[in-house]
Design a protein that fits this description.
With about 325 residues, the protein is mainly beta. Helix content is about 15%, strand content about 35%. It contains seven helices and 20 strands. The strands form five sheets. Strands 14, 15, 16, 17, 18, 19 and 20 form a seven-stranded antiparallel sheet that branches. A six-stranded antiparallel sheet has the order 1-2-5-12-7-10, with no helix packed on it. Strand 3 and strand 4 (about 45) form a beta hairpin. Helix 6 runs antiparallel to helix 7 (about 215-220). The longest helix is centred in the middle third of the chain and has 9 residues, at about 140-150. The chain is globular and about 60 Å long. It starts with 8 loop residues before the first strand and ends with a strand.
């Protein structure tokens, strides 16, 4: 097998901005895009291969064809032939709704789906005052939550952080959260599109109707635990991996390279995804397949990949994630 690139799935939203199009080097596009789904096996939103002999096939198709060779033998069994991760870029021109996602148990019970644990890497922060709300700042009961949604005061109990490029937040399923206006974010999450909208600032949809809220569904899904600090701390380093998140659903590292580097994946029984955040590089796998990767692009390396040679074009910064 060989490294796979996919056609981006662009999503227009009422809160979407205009950063994703130039960030992904797409031309002659004018729409306001809120999300670019980079690699997705969500039903109805399956990514389509853009390169090589499998071009035109969906991610679902090639998983059925290559099975463990693509995702890893244990991953293929564990996730019943489904691709376990969804990779996105999110561009918020306006604040996203206050929301929460169910965990595996609740999502399977209600929707026959995986839950949705996710992480955010902040790529840019607009005018420098962009904010993120990644959890509760004070303890409330489920009954207090319901009342605060009803009287429009739920935002009063949310933590709030002014963010800068490079900030990282880990959001396990059940953590109430929102992305603020001006943020451009790379998101890595479980394969799920289940979102419970808690509060939406009384906004209307395109038809002038109040957007649907999922107050009762969210009530049971929320983890009401309060954390002291919701930021994910790490020490930036040049030319070596920096682990950002390690959880049962994915491990993600940051690479900031100005020097050539060889990656050894012989002992890893998993696919690997690179999500390019800045700069560009040339990558060659152990079979001699060569590709260019630049900011705004993502690439999926199959589980059969034993090693990669990464040659920066002066400088490249990317996320590496696998299961």
């Amino acid at each position: 097998m060989y490294p796979l690139k996919f056609r981006p799935i662009l999503k227009t939203t009422i809160w979407g901005g205009n950063k994703i199009i130039p960030f992904k080097h797409l031309t002659n596009r004018q729409e306001q895009v809120g999300e670019s789904w980079e690699i997705s096996d969500v039903p109805g939103n399956e990514s389509i291969v853009a390169n090589g002999s499998d071009a035109g096939k969906s991610l679902t198709d090639i998983i059925h064809e290559y099975r463990g060779k693509l995702v890893g033998e244990e991953n293929y069994r564990r996730f019943n032939g489904k691709f376990p991760l969804l990779v996105k870029f999110i561009d918020a021109k306006a604040d996203l709704s206050i929301q929460v996602h169910p965990n595996d148990e609740l999502a399977m019970k209600r929707h026959n789906s995986m839950g949705k644990t996710e992480m955010w890497y902040v790529i840019s922060n607009g005018d420098g005052n962009s904010r993120i709300c990644p959890g509760l700042k004070q303890h409330i009961t489920p009954e207090q939550y319901t009342q605060m949604v009803a009287d429009n005061t739920i935002c009063n109990v949310l933590s709030e952080y002014t963010v800068k490029p490079g900030d990282v937040f880990f959001l396990p399923a059940g953590r109430i959260h929102s992305i603020g206006a001006g943020c451009l974010i790379a998101e890595i999450q479980q394969t799920s599109d289940i979102t419970y909208r808690i509060y939406d600032f009384n906004r209307k949809d395109k038809d002038g109707n109040p957007r649907e809220l999922h107050t009762e569904l969210a009530k049971e899904a929320i983890n009401y635990t309060v954390e002291k600090d919701y930021r994910t701390p790490y020490t930036p380093k040049m030319n070596e991996p920096v682990e950002l998140v390690a959880c049962p659903y994915f491990t993600t590292c940051l690479y900031d390279l100005t020097e050539n580097m060889t990656m050894d994946y012989k002992e890893l029984d998993s696919f690997v995804i690179y999500v390019c955040l800045e700069g560009s590089c040339t990558i060659t796998d152990n079979n001699g397949y060569r590709l260019e990767l630049k900011s705004g692009e993502s690439v999926l390396f199959p589980a059969t990949t034993e090693s990669l040679s990464v040659i920066p074009d002066h400088h490249v910064k990317f996320l590496e994630t696998y299961v």
